[in-house]
Amino acid sequence: MLRALTGKICEIFENALIIDVNGLGFEVMCSRSVFDSCKIGEVSRLVTSLQISESGANLYGFASEREREFFLKLMSVKGVGGRTAIAILSELSIDEVIEAVSSADFSVFQRVSGIGRKTAERLCFELKNLSMFKNPDTKISDTPQKSQAANSGSAKSVMEALMSLGFSQADAARTINSIRAAQSENFANLGEEDLLRLALRELHGR
Asked: pTM for the complete prediction?
């Protein structure tokens, strides 16, 4: 669901940026490597993770699939939500995170604003048994995964993404059906990212 966005960088703030995708401005909280590589006015592709909680929906952006995977692993630790996980990746590089966990140096995590000793210790303890932290040479591919066929499951994911962005269920369903009719021969080969891009373009054009 909403695995990537490609668009022009409009604004860059301290912990987030605005990316224009077909006329829609997405606010994305990003990792340090994204801020290091993005410039206002340039077209960029962000790997993303949409997290929905009781407080609302937040979109997080990364420079690679590897960063996204680390973000999700950080969120698996008790007490670490999306904002805390992205704060870690905004303050520390992946190599620094791996080294801190591998050496149980919880003081490294305490450099991140909002992380106290207990959370820092929990990060080291709960992540140390994961293969990517036990073996620092283990890497997750930085190459974005290819989109899967847009079957009913992926169409449902795109509908959920559209609804989380404020579109009604009726409009989301109508748009998916419209694309299915227009792309009858090619619809099954559309990936989620392509389907979402077409849906946003159609909804924006209304």
From this structure: 0.64
